[in-house]
Structures are given as structure tokens and as C-alpha cells.
Design brief:
The complex is a heterotrimer. Chain B is an alpha+beta fold. Chain B has 7 helices and 4 strands; from the N terminus they run H-H-H-H-E-H-H-E-E-E-H. Chain B starts with a helix and ends with a helix. The chains are: A alpha/beta, B alpha+beta, C alpha/beta. The structure holds flavin mononucleotide, iron/sulfur cluster and FE2/S2 (inorganic) cluster.
């Protein structure tokens, strides 16, 4: 497939405006400015584009809600927090193809009548900050940003807001709190950000990859776009693969490519010819799968059918050398570290699960610990304020469900099956 | 102060400028001491307690003095299975550097990171703002030795 | 109309409310922890989870809006299991130290666990440890018990507006802390104590001494500290107050109190309370019996009256005593002794200001409801910081600001710094320049209502000849013009200057132009009541001018009323020093300490032949007295107070005092000894006479007052549209007075007059007088907060630490009049300004770094 999101990223000049323009960049913006905002929203709706940040919400619908709200000013925020462990798919766009994102944001802002935009960039990407700020400066200089964009009378200002190390700020309402200078704890929904978002104004939060899809939709039209990948949720998708494969990395493939194809065709299979043991399909918050699910299509509709989720499309591959109890424990350590502390089950329950996993992992597991873990996890699931806690519970439940023997072994033999 | 004025332009209210202002304060003071927090609060006319609440929520703001160079090493799942924990042990052996601690000579501080988005080139770390990936037991020290 | 079903009950709602509220209205109680009425919903504890048909997840009732057709269940097995799980989570890190926890018995967590909780926790690892913090004098913080409901934070930020505490850290390492991590250094309203559901934030004053079951009796009363008049409940044990608390839904303060109201009651139990009547013999005060003391007072008064005539006697009433006490004092003076020489410290600013405002704008002009301030769309504040002088009123301004009202301050208003949109500079004596500048602009293009011809005439004369630089006038005028529902809050500072008559006229003009509701800040709980009771040299009870209503009063009482206007407070002091006034009767006031120029007052009082002081402490004034009569304190007696909104409220006795006598009763005893028939055996009888004499209070019974119905204009005749005219000088030539550096009176939040000296709790918060100076001044002298400086006036000098206040004017130096060691009174002189109030303009002061 021809790459669009990652087009030319191997070229060292790919982040420069001149290069981007020479390759046809900002053409979609020019086209978009000749359309009415409603027409653009219509196109995006018709394209079937679903948000790439994890939840898969239809982008056109989100825009529609925001644009119907009579309040002004409106804000457009690009979610570049990319905090989900295993995820590094937005990074090449941010570092190598920033103008694609900026172009996508300008078009989106035009459609939404938003005059101010932020890129909420995770603090852990200092290089991306430099690149983005440079790109924004170039775009201002060329009149793509600022008061009267390309003479259209449309005004849009864009700046980078640097996060400071909090996974929860990827959640859109926590992200908004954070931009407002607050502790990044999620807000009560409803009202949704499309109505009451940043500074109380209608706000659209979209993932980097989502916004980077916009110029493509405008360029080829929604009908053509719909032909890419699974028609139920079309478009190109960035899959970032890590762990025990020969060639880990980011792959731009049509939405709905199977896990098997991704791992064995694009990533060269399991490293060292090893044997696949488990795979997490969408970042650490998504339930783990066993090798028999390899023929599942990696998209928003197919993965739920096998008990997992597409999430951010971060495929984490584990071969037989990896101790899954340890993976599960490490994941829990992550969730404990990142729990914002707002709600009881997540704050207290996740710590508890981590404690129990830690003792199993270090050889002090007790009889009944597995049942205890399952019980605590189900006491968290469905009762937390935001999906972070649910994710943590889901991970524990899926690891135990799919790999009970590893946990049993650990408890019984006080050591790891892998070592043995 | 000029820097903060520039920041303020980007946000509709003073509070919005808090996160970037904390970065400025952290840079100026090396870490966010009470004094640094008070300064940040004053610059934005925000209550100091509020500023502290925000500053302590985010992991990248430091609440104790840091060494000259900050090693931020990822040990999340992808890095873990590629041997990041071994690197943590080596840092301890070589420099006496514990996670969350600083070397006696004040050269390095070590902070264990959750995923830094380099899972395909694990294990990875940031030293100050420089990114280093595909680390192993040898190259990590080659890299670090360049930081005085 | 919204119809929904909760636990099978059909509920109809007129307005949008949460499922929790809808259930509550239907009598269904859903357990909660992070929810607190009046605070923004949080949804964090997850205890209020309910099942809603068609929604896959459990929902939190406290955040979910009730919607038409919703079917909700609140007590299914699934929900119970969820609650049990949540409680088990909460107990993971909870120390379970209920036996030693002061919250035991009123702990929400304890109650919830008893009802829904697990039998035993399954968490076996060590609990998180975080030692209890005793770094603060008032508040103990035990973060092991904290459930992170954030009720305290939301209270502190969203209602109190102090922003003193925060959650630090994240996840399971989150803790509630003040900025310092130790001392709170906050407004000490203690409202966080009210809302903490567990024993995490507790009062040190009640440590190990308070358990709910210790409370033998609860008495509802009204705070005795300031003119707001907050309602509170005294919790009693063995005749002592163990705690005063506010209650949701009770009084105008609705669940809130300020530091003084919450912690300041312990002066009642001070060792230094007066226990016995005292008579001076051979220069020393000796304990005597009540009858001896009373006989003596009566005989001396009689003697002086016979020898020098009634005009040689005067009295000072009190803004801390009840209406009934004040009524009885003026009764004694007017009807028994036969003089109008009566006044109170309301003279220092409150009385003259109120009378002139009423003279221009009509009686009752300040009778506006405090809780209504938050509905304003604009608030103008001048004359001092309302959040210090009348804290609960100050909170209403903060609330208005939060709801979008534009707040403009003029001069000192530190507590509104985060809430004001425009902060105009202004030294107390130069406020009229800024006001003049505003009036000049604001009157343009405004169609005057023509209601008040005189005022309009004056208004058109206003001319500022020398404007002050750096005033954002356009912005201010723009904001003022947009106000449709304005409030103006007027404080004492601008009323204590030579020009305050002019200032007040400009204030009246602004009120008129904005059609604003005006509030006059009152430092004492009953300045208004003292005035309404006739504790004024020229007004009879009911706010009736003497000359006009003399006859009516005489008819009502069947007694003669002395015709001549009496001496006011300043005049009485002058008359005493000139030897014209021979006897002074002081009730509940400490002029030697509470007025400026201690030496002058002391000298004057020394010249008296006879000084009687009724008080609860042996004050500086009492020390000079010939007779000292121990009175009952605030919590030891019943009666009424009239607050600054003119709401009359009932105060009730809770504690016993075997020693003191109610002020009104002492006065009754003395009257009787002066030949009056005994009339008043119980308090109600005093009030009956008040109602009979004062047309303002006519028909108003104690029942109405207790029912909370005594709101202006009561049932009485809303009297006189008297529009008086005043001679105002220099309206057409307003310019700054360059008086140099002047000493001003500070009115700190944590103290109140000289009484709070006796509160250990308040002293533990602030135990010294601070010299308050502007940021600029501090920078000029190279001073930082807490540095010691020397303050010098022509009367002497003192040393104290400084506090820097960015809203203070550069040429004004403040110090409070609370502490014996360093105070305003001993360094300051005074004059009576043109308004008839105190003037502090000629109070030059120097500051030296030490
Ligand atoms: C705990 C949590 C973390 C999240 N982190 C991210 C993130 O790092 N990046 C992102 O784009 N979306 C993240 N999301 C999803 C966002 O809430 C939101 O759905 C997304 O930004 C919407 O953009 P989209 O519609 O373009 O996907 C996260 C959600 C949750 C609950
Ligand atoms: S505001 Fe006034 S009345 Fe209310 S508690 Fe404080 S001092 Fe008492
Ligand atoms: S009361 Fe509803 S979540 Fe706490």
C-alpha cells in the first residue's frame, strides 16, 4: 500500500515545509478553504473515519456536535500525549511529518470554526517539541497559520502545550484540565468536551493520527477513502509493533490487517525463530490474546469479538521466553504509578493488585491469590471514574484467563515457568 | 519574566500558563523547591497551594535537587523484556546510582520512566533531552560517559 | 417535567437535578462519601453507584442527571456488592484506629462500614504510613485516615475561596496538604473541619476532648463577633461550650463560619473573667457584694445629678451588648437621669456614615440581604477588606465573582485579590478623588431618575481638579455601565478621614447612579442595634430624630424626654477632660483601649468624679473605674442583635455564669435604686417596651425573631423619607491630599477589638500585631515579610513584624488595636472629622528598619 501518513519519512528533509510543499503538501488545505465548513464535516462523516486515539469514536460525529454548539470561541486540541505503553505510532508523524498534522489541524479548525488550537505533546518527546515548534513557525511565516490564512479571512493560532509526565492526561477531559493548568484528573461527563471543554468552551480533542488522516480525506474524497481497509472502519492505520519480533516498528497498513499478517509478513515473524506465546493488540490497557487469535483483523469491530480492543494499535508480541506474570506485574506497576487518585477503586484497587502480583512474581504467592486477584479486578471493573482503572482490571483478568498455568506455576513452585 | 509573558500570550487565562511556567521555574532553579513554586505562583498570581498541587501531580517536575544530568530510563514492558532492568542494576553497580537517586558527585540522577514511546528500539532512555535507544550493557556506558 | 422511577417509586421533578437529589426528595437515601451539599459534585468515591436500566455500567447518582423515563435501582445485590468492595478498598490504607479517633461517632466512613462494609478486609500487606501532622496550631492532619473525597479542598477553593490546601502527589500517594506541608497559614475558617467525613482533618482544640456523645445539649445562637451575625450551634457539656459549629440550612451563613466564630469562643472560659463586683477604696479595687455595688452606683449617680445636673452624666453603650441592654442603658440615661448624653463606639464610623447615607438615600438603605450579594452582576468594594472585617459577607463577594460578577475594589482588599477584576489604588483619604473621577464619567449620558433632586444637584457639581494617575478609568466605567444588579460594599477605612462627608456623598451618588444595593460593614455584632435602640445623643429608639419625635416618645412612655441633643462619644471625652462631665457609665466598651490616643482618653477619664464599667473583663477602662460590675458574656444570656443587614436575631444562653449579671438587669437594678418602679423581671418585658416605644419595631415579637422573620422593615412603620441636605465642602475641587505617611487602623481577620486577646485559640493563630505595609514600601526599605521594624509617631514608638499587602496604599501604615504590647491606640491621635466620625488624617508616622 502506498503510504500516506508516513510518506517520505525516510527522507531527512521530510519535516521541512519546503519539502512537504514540494510533495504536494498543503494542497488539501487549499482545497478545503474552497469548501464550506459544513461540507468538510460532511466529508469526514461520510468517510467513516474513527478516532485513532483508542476509543474509536466517529470523528465526523464529534465535529458535528462541536460545530452545532453555539458558543465561541471553540478550541481544537491535538492529543499527542501518546502515553499508552507500547505505543509509538504518533511519534513519526510528530517528528518526521509535522506539516501533515498541522495541515490536518488547520482544515479541522476551519471546519469547526475554531480559532485556537493546541498540540498537547507528551513531555517525554522533547525532540518532537523542537520539530513541531519549528514547523509551526514555518507555517506562520508562509501564512498557513495566523490571522488571514491564505487570504481566506479564516484565522487560526496553534501552539504546543507540553505535558509533564502523566499518562492520564491522554484521556481527553484530563488533558483539558491539564491545558487549563490543573491537576490532570478526568472530568465528569456529560457535559462532553464538544460542548463544555477547554475553558468551558466547545472543544474537539483528536488524536495525532486522526488529524493526519484529514488531508487525505480531503485530497481523495470520502468515497475513495472508504475503500481503504475494512469498510466498517476504513482508512489507513498505523500499527506499532514491539517485543519479540524480528523487525519492530511502525507500519502503515489498511485498517483491518490481521495480526498474523502484521507479525509474520511485515515484522518478519518472531525473533530468532521463536514461538509466539501471547500478544497484546492495542497497547497495555487492552486484554492480552493467545496465539489462536492471530487471524483476527486489527480494527475497532473485530477485536472486541475476541475479547480485546484495537486501542492505539500498539501490538506487543511475547515469545516463550517472556514471563507473563512479570509482564502483568509490570503493567500493574504502571497503572498504579499513573492512577490519578480521583476514584477509590482505581487508586486503592490497582495498588492492591500490584501488591498481590508482586508477591506471586517474587515467589511469595499464596493459595487463593489468583481468586483474590480476580475478585479485586472484578470489583474495580465497571466501577471506576474513567477507563484507566477498567483497563488495569481487564489486563489482570485477561492474563489470568488466558494463561492460568503460568500463575499457578509461580505460586506453587515459587518461581517462574520460563526460568524452569 | 519575559519568557512567562510569551507563554501567557498562548492561553486565555493565567492558569493555563501554569504547566509551561513550572518548566521555566524548574529550569531556573534546577528543581521545584518551595521557593521556585512560590515564584511561579507569584508570576501567575495563583495560590501557592494550587501551584504545588499541580506541580506534584506530574512526574516530570522534580521536587528534590537533581544531578547535572538526568537519566530517564524506561523499564516498562517492552523495555523490560529487552533487558532494561539489567541496565538499572548496572547503573547501580557502576555509579552507585539508585532509581530516584543522584550520584554522590552530582553527575547523574536516575529516574525510572514509564513508556517513553521507543518500544521498537527498546530499551531506551532520555539523558536530559537527548534520546538514546537500542541500549545494551555496553553502549549505555559509552553514551553516558559523554555526559560530564 | 421529568418523570423517573427510583426503587419503584415514581418521581416527578420540575427542574434538572441529579439522581441522588431526586432520590433524596423521594425519601430514598443513597450512601455517599465525596458528595457534600453545596459543593460541586466530584464522583470520586463511587459509593453512590446505582443501577440504571439500559445503561450497562453502574452509575454514580451524585453526578448523573435525572432524565425522563429513567428507571433506577439503588439497593440491588449488585450494588451492595459494589459498595462493599469500595469500602474494602477504602479500608486498605485506613488505620482503623477508631477507638482513639476524635471523629468516632460522627465518622461517615464508620457508619458506612457498619451498614455496607465487609466483615474483614483481605488486604494483608502493610498499610501506607504517613505520620499525623501537628505543625499547625489549630488543625491536626492525619492523612492515614483520609479517603481523598476532596470535600475539604472543594470547600476551601470553591466556597471559602482561600485556596490554602491542595492534593499533592498522585494516585495512592495523594495527600491533602497546605502549601507549606506543615502550618496552614490560611484563613482558618475551619470549614474544612465541617466537611471532612472522617478523622483526617481535625481541630486540635478538641483533641481527645470531644466525642459526639459528650454533647449534652445543643443551643442555636448567633455569633457575637461581627455585624454579619452568623448562626451557629453551641455544643455544650457540663455547662461549657465544647465546640461551636455551623449547620447547613441554618442562618444566613448556611454552613459556613469564619475563624472568629468557629474558634474564638474560648475567651468565655478565660481565667481572667470578672467574678465579683469591685469598688475602688483607697485607690484599689476591692471585691464587694452585688447589693453593695449597686447601691453605691445609684447613690453616686444621684449625688452627681443633684450636684451638677443630669448633663454632667454620660453613658457609652456597646455594639457587643444586645438590643435589650442598649435599650435599658439609654432608658436609664434619658428617662431616669434625664440626659441625652449617650453614644457608643459606633460613632467612630458606623453611626455617622449610616445616618448620612440614610439622610441622603432614605432610611433602611443599607438593609439588604447578605446572601443576596452573590446574585449581583457587579460589586464595588471600598473602605477595607470585607473578607477580614465581615468574613462571611466577603465570601458572598467571592461567590458573586465566581458566578461572573465584575468585582471592582478601591483601596485595600487583599482577600479579594483573586476575585477582583479591577483593583483601583486608593489611600483611605484619597478615595474621593477616584470616586470623583468615576462619577464625572459615569454621570455622562445617564438619564437621572429625578428622584433625588438634592443629590442630583450635588452630583453635577463634582469636579476633580487633580486626577490620580494610572487609574484604568475606561475599563472601570465600562464595567460599571454594564452592571444591572450592582452591590456596593462600604467599609470603615474611608469613613475615618477629614473628607469622609464628601466621600460618603460620592458613595451615595455612586449608589444612586448604579441603583446599587449598599452594605455598610460593621465590626461589631450590634452597632446597628445599639443605634436602633437610641444609643445616640440625638436619636430616640427606632431611629427617630430627637427633635421630631420627642413628643411621640413621651406619649408612648408617659415620661419626659430631655429636649437637648446630648454629647457624642468625642464630646463626652472632651467634656470629661474639661471637667464638665462628672460621671460616665460604660457598658461593654473599653474606650481607653479601643479608641485612638490612649493618653488623651486616660487623662479625660481620670478627671471624672465617677466612672462605672460593666464588663466581662477587667479592661484598661475598668482598671480606672470606681465601680466595676461583672456582666454576663455572649453565651451566658439571651437577647437580640441587629446585624448590618438589619436582621434581628436571637442569641441564646448556653453556658452558666454564676457570677455575672445580664447588662439589662444590672441597669434595671440601678434604675430601681434611683427611684424607678421595678418593671422588668424577664427579658421579654424589656422587648415589650422596645416594641411599644420604637415605631420601627412595633408589632415585632420574639416569636417572629426566632422564626427568622425579623427582616427590614419588620412590621413597623417604615418611617421618614427624610431627605436631609448637607453642606459638603470642596465638591468642585477634588484633589489628592498629600498628608504623607499616616498611621491607619488595621482590622485583622483573626482578631476583634480587645476581646479576642482572651481567646487562646485565636492567639495561637496570631499572637502579635503586625505592621501592614505596601509592597512598594517594603521594597523601598528592603524589607521582607516578618522583618521587624520600628514605628514612630509623636506619641512614641513600638517595634513589630511586618506583613506585606499588595493592595495597601504606599503612604498608609497599618497596625491593629488588639494587643497590649503593640497597638494602634497608643501611637495614634484622633480628631472628629467633618462627618462626625473619627478622622485619622493627621496621624503622621515614620517607619525605621531595625
Ligand atoms: C487513560 C486514557 C489514556 C488515553 N491516552 C491517549 C493518548 O495518549 N493519546 C490519544 O490520542 N488518546 C488517548 N486516549 C483517548 C482520548 O481520551 C480520546 O478518546 C482521544 O484523544 C480522542 O481522539 P480520537 O477521536 O481522534 O481518537 C486515552 C484515553 C484514556 C481513557
Ligand atoms: S463572619 Fe462575623 S458573625 Fe460570622 S462567624 Fe465570623 S465574626 Fe462571627
Ligand atoms: S458520592 Fe457519588 S461518587 Fe462519591
Amino acid at each position: 500500500m502506498e503510504r500516506f501518513l508516513l510518506k517520505n519519512i525516510d527522507n531527512p528533509e521530510s519535516h521541512r515545509l519546503a519539502f512537504y510543499e514540494a510533495e504536494g503538501g498543503y494542497g488539501s488545505l487549499k482545497k478545503a478553504l474552497s469548501l464550506k465548513p459544513e461540507e468538510i464535516i460532511g466529508e469526514v462523516k461520510n468517510s467513516g473515519l474513527r478516532g485513532r486515539g483508542g476509543a474509536g469514536f466517529p470523528t465526523g460525529m464529534k465535529w458535528d456536535f462541536a460545530s452545532r454548539d453555539p458558543k465561541f470561541p471553540k478550541y481544537l486540541i491535538c492529543n499527542a500525549d501518546e502515553g499508552e505503553p507500547g505505543t509509538f505510532k504518533d511519534r513519526p508523524i510528530l517528528e518526521k511529518n509535522p506539516h501533515l498534522l498541522i495541515e490536518g489541524m488547520i482544515i479541522s479548525a476551519y471546519a469547526l470554526k475554531a480559532e485556537k488550537g493546541y498540540i498537547y505533546l507528551r513531555g517525554e518527546y522533547p525532540y518532537a517539541k523542537v520539530v513541531l515548534e519549528e514547523a509551526i513557525k514555518e507555517a506562520y511565516e508562509k501564512g498557513y497559520l495566523g490571522d488571514n490564512i491564505l487570504g481566506s479571512g479564516f484565522k487560526f493560532d496553534l501552539s504546543v502545550h507540553q505535558g509533564a509526565g502523566a499518562y492520564i492526561c491522554g484521556e481527553e477531559t484530563a488533558l483539558i484540565e491539564s491545558i487549563e493548568g490543573k491537576r490532570g484528573q478526568p472530568r465528569i461527563k456529560p457535559p462532553f468536551p464538544v460542548n463544555v471543554g477547554a475553558w468551558g468552551m466547545p472543544t474537539v480533542v483528536n488524536n495525532v493520527e486522526t488529524l493526519a488522516n484529514i488531508p487525505l480525506i480531503i485530497k481523495i474524497g470520502s468515497e475513495e477513502y472508504k475503500k481503504i481497509g475494512n469498510p466498517e472502519c476504513p482508512g489507513p492505520k498505523l500499527y506499532c509493533v514491539s517485543g519479540c519480533v524480528e523487525s519492530p516498528g511502525v507500519y502503515e497498513l489498511p485498517m483491518g490487517t490481521t495480526l498474523r499478517e502484521i507479525i509474520y509478513e511485515h515484522c518478519g515473524g518472531i525473533r530468532g525463530g521463536g514461538e509466539l506465546k501471547a500478544v497484546i493488540p492495542g497497547g497495555i490497557s487492552t486484554p492480552v490474546l493467545t496465539p489462536d487469535k492471530l487471524d483476527t483483523m486489527m480494527d475497532f469491530v473485530s477485536l472486541p469479538k475476541v475479547g480485546s480492543m484495537l486501542g492505539s494499535g500498539a501490538v506487543m508480541v511475547f515469545d516463550q521466553s517472556v514471563c507473563l506474570v512479570r509482564v502483568c506485574w509490570r503493567a500493574m506497576k504502571f497503572f498504579e504509578h499513573e492512577s490519578c487518585g480521583k476514584c477509590t477503586p482505581c487508586r486503592e484497587g490497582v495498588s492492591w493488585m500490584r501488591t498481590v502480583l508482586e508477591r506471586i512474581e517474587s515467589g511469595f504467592g499464596r493459595k487463593g491469590d489468583i481468586e483474590l486477584l480476580q475478585d479485586v479486578a472484578s470489583n474495580i471493573a465497571g466501577k471506576t471514574f474513567c477507563p484507566l482503572g477498567d483497563g488495569a482490571a481487564g489486563v489482570v483478568l485477561s492474563f489470568i484467563r488466558n494463561f492460568p498455568e503460568e500463575f499457578d506455576y509461580h505460586i506453587e513452585h515459587k518461581k517462574c515457568m520460563v526460568e524452569a | 519574566m519575559d519568557e512567562i509573558k510569551e507563554i501567557l500570550k498562548k492561553y486565555p487565562d493565567r492558569r493555563g500558563a501554569l504547566l509551561p511556567t513550572l518548566y521555566v521555574a524548574q529550569k531556573a532553579y534546577g528543581w521545584l523547591s518551595q521557593e521556585a513554586l512560590e515564584e511561579a505562583a507569584k508570576a501567575l498570581n495563583l495560590p501557592p497551594a494550587t501551584v504545588k498541587g499541580v506541580a506534584t501531580f506530574y512526574a516530570m517536575y522534580k521536587h528534590k535537587p537533581m544531578g547535572r544530568h538526568l537519566i530517564q530510563l524506561c523499564t516498562n514492558v517492552a523495555c523490560m523484556i529487552m533487558g532494561a532492568e539489567r541496565l538499572v542494576d548496572l547503573l547501580k553497580e557502576r555509579y552507585g546510582l539508585e532509581p530516584g537517586g543522584t550520584t554522590e558527585d552530582g553527575r547523574f540522577s536516575l529516574v525510572i520512566m514509564e513508556c517513553i514511546g521507543a518500544c521498537d528500539r527498546a530499551p531506551a532512555m532520555l539523558v536530559d533531552t537527548d534520546f538514546h535507544a537500542d541500549l545494551n550493557e555496553n553502549n549505555i556506558f559509552e553514551i553516558l560517559e559523554k555526559y560530564e | 417535567m421529568i418523570k423517573l422511577t427510583i426503587d419503584g417509586k415514581e418521581i416527578e421533578l420540575e427542574e434538572q437535578v441529579t439522581v441522588l437529589e431526586a432520590a433524596r426528595r423521594a425519601g430514598i437515601k443513597i450512601p455517599t462519601l465525596c458528595y457534600f451539599e453545596g459543593l460541586k459534585p466530584f464522583g470520586g468515591c463511587r459509593l453512590c453507584l446505582v443501577e440504571v436500566e439500559k445503561l450497562p455500567r453502574l452509575q454514580t447518582a451524585c453526578t448523573l442527571m435525572a432524565a425522563d423515563g429513567m428507571v433506577v435501582k439503588t439497593e440491588t445485590e449488585k450494588i451492595k456488592a459494589a459498595r462493599r468492595a469500595i469500602l474494602e478498598f477504602l479500608l486498605i490504607n485506613h488505620p482503623l484506629d477508631c477507638p482513639v479517633c476524635d471523629k468516632a461517632g460522627e465518622c461517615e466512613l464508620q457508619d458506612l462500614v457498619a451498614r455496607y462494609g465487609p466483615d474483614a478486609g483481605r488486604f494483608t500487606e502493610g498499610k501506607r504510613h504517613h505520620p499525623e501532622s501537628f505543625d499547625d496550631p489549630i488543625i491536626v492532619r492525619n492523612m492515614e485516615r483520609c479517603v481523598l473525597c476532596t470535600r475539604c479542598i472543594r470547600m476551601c477553593e470553591d466556597l471559602q475561596g482561600a485556596y490554602a490546601i491542595t492534593v499533592t502527589g498522585r494516585g495512592s500517594h495523594s495527600f491533602v496538604e497546605p502549601f507549606s506541608g506543615g502550618r496552614y497559614n490560611c484563613e482558618y475558617c475551619g470549614n474544612c473541619l465541617t466537611v471532612c467525613p472522617v478523622g483526617a482533618i481535625m481541630s486540635r482544640l478538641h483533641r481527645h476532648s470531644y466525642r459526639p456523645w459528650f454533647v449534652e445539649k445543643e443551643v442555636e445562637t448567633v455569633c457575637g463577633y461581627c455585624g454579619v451575625g452568623c448562626s451557629m450551634v453551641m455544643q455544650m457539656r457540663e455547662g461549657k461550650i465544647i465546640r461551636t459549629i455551623p449547620r447547613m440550612g441554618l442562618g444566613l451563613n448556611n454552613g459556613l463560619l469564619c475563624v472568629r466564630g468557629r474558634f474564638g469562643y474560648d475567651y468565655l472560659q478565660s481565667e481572667q473573667r470578672l467574678r465579683s463586683p469591685l469598688i475602688r477604696r483607697d485607690g484599689e479595687l476591692h471585691e464587694v457584694s452585688w447589693s453593695e455595688a449597686l447601691d453605691y452606683v445609684a447613690s453616686r449617680l444621684k449625688e452627681i445629678k443633684e450636684k451638677h445636673g443630669p448633663q454632667a452624666i454620660g453613658a457609652i453603650g456597646s455594639g457587643r451588648c444586645t438590643n435589650e441592654d442598649n435599650y435599658m442603658l439609654q432608658r436609664l440615661m434619658r428617662f431616669t437621669i434625664g440626659t441625652n448624653n449617650i453614644d457608643s463606639s459606633a460613632r467612630l464610623y458606623y453611626a455617622p456614615a449610616l445616618l448620612m447615607l440614610e439622610g441622603i438615600l432614605g432610611q433602611g438603605i443599607t438593609a439588604n440581604l447578605i446572601p443576596g450579594i452573590k446574585n449581583a452582576d457587579g460589586v464595588v468594594v471600598l473602605g477595607g477588606d470585607p473578607t477580614q472585617i465581615n468574613p462571611i459577607l466577603g465570601l458572598q463577594i467571592r461567590a458573586a465573582s465566581r458566578d461572573g460578577a465584575k468585582v471592582i475594589t478601591l483601596g485595600r482588599a487583599k482577600g479579594l485579590e483573586r476575585f477582583a477584576h479591577i483593583m483601583l489604588p486608593g489611600a483611605p483619604s484619597n478615595v474621593d478623588v477616584v470616586l470623583g473621577m468615576i462619577i464625572q464619567e459615569l454621570r455622562e449620558g445617564v438619564e437621572l431618575k429625578g428622584e433625588n433632586k438634592w443629590l442630583q444637584e450635588q452630583l453635577s457639581k463634582v469636579k476633580v481638579t487633580e486626577p490620580i494617575e494610572g487609574i484604568p478609568l475606561d475599563e472601570t466605567i465600562g464595567a460599571l455601565r454594564e452592571m444591572k444588579n450592582a452591590v456596593l460594599v462600604l467599609g470603615p477605612e474611608v469613613l475615618q478621614s477629614d473628607n469622609s462627608d464628601r466621600t460618603l456623598l460620592l458613595v451615595a451618588a455612586l449608589v444612586y447612579l448604579l441603583d446599587a444595593r449598599v452594605f455598610l460593614l460593621s465590626e461589631r455584632p450590634n452597632y446597628q442595634g445599639a443605634m436602633d435602640m437610641g444609643v445616640l445623643p440625638d436619636m430616640l429608639p427606632g431611629g427617630r430624630p430627637l427633635e421630631m419625635f420627642k413628643q411621640k416618645a413621651e406619649e408612648a412612655l408617659g415620661r419626659e424626654v430631655p429636649a437637648d441633643r446630648g454629647l457624642n462619644l468625642f464630646e463626652m471625652i472632651d467634656a470629661a477632660s474639661e471637667g464638665r462631665l462628672k460621671a460616665l457609665y460604660v457598658m461593654g466598651e473599653n474606650p481607653v483601649f479601643n479608641m485612638p490616643d490612649k493618653d488623651r482618653i486616660t487623662e479625660a477619664l481620670k478627671k471624672l468624679e465617677f466612672l462605672v464599667v460593666q464588663d466581662i473583663f477587667l479592661t484598661e477602662t475598668a482598671l480606672m473605674a470606681d465601680v466595676v460590675l461583672p456582666a454576663r458574656a455572649w453565651s451566658e444570656r439571651t437577647g437580640t442583635y441587629t446585624n448590618l443587614e438589619r436582621r434581628i436575631q436571637f442569641i441564646r444562653s448556653g453556658t452558666d455564669s454564676a457570677d455575672g449579671m445580664e447588662d439589662w438587669r444590672i441597669l434595671e437594678e440601678i434604675s430601681a435604686r434611683l427611684g424607678e418602679e421595678k418593671r422588668f423581671a424577664i427579658l421579654d418585658e424589656v422587648w415589650e417596651e422596645v416594641v411599644h416605644v420604637s415605631p420601627l419595631h412595633s408589632g415585632l415579637g420574639y416569636d417572629d425573631i426566632k422564626d427568622g422573620k425579623a427582616i427590614w422593615p419588620y412590621k413597623g412603620e417604615p418611617l421618614r423619607g427624610v431627605e436631609e441636605t448637607y453642606e459638603i465642602q470642596g465638591l468642585d475641587n477634588i484633589r489628592p491630599i498629600k498628608s504623607g505617611q499616616v498611621l491607619q487602623l488595621d482590622r485583622p481577620l483573626y482578631h476583634s477589638g480587645s476581646i479576642s486577646r482572651h481567646s487562646k485559640a485565636l492567639r495561637s493563630i496570631e499572637d502579635e500585631a503586625f505592621i501592614v505595609i505596601s509592597t512598594k514600601k517594603a521594597e523601598g526599605l528592603g524589607l521582607a515579610d516578618g522583618d521587624i521594624v520600628k514605628l514612630i509617631t509623636d506619641r512614641g514608638s513600638l517595634q513589630a513584624r511586618i506583613k506585606i499587602d499588595s493592595t495597601v496604599d504606599e503612604d498608609n501604615i497599618y497596625i491593629s488595636n488588639t494587643f497590649t504590647e503593640a497597638n494602634f491606640g497608643s501611637l495614634s491621635g484622633y480628631e472628629a472629622g467633618r462627618l462626625g466620625s473619627l478622622s485619622l488624617d493627621k496621624n503622621p508616622v515614620k517607619l525605621e528598619k531595625v
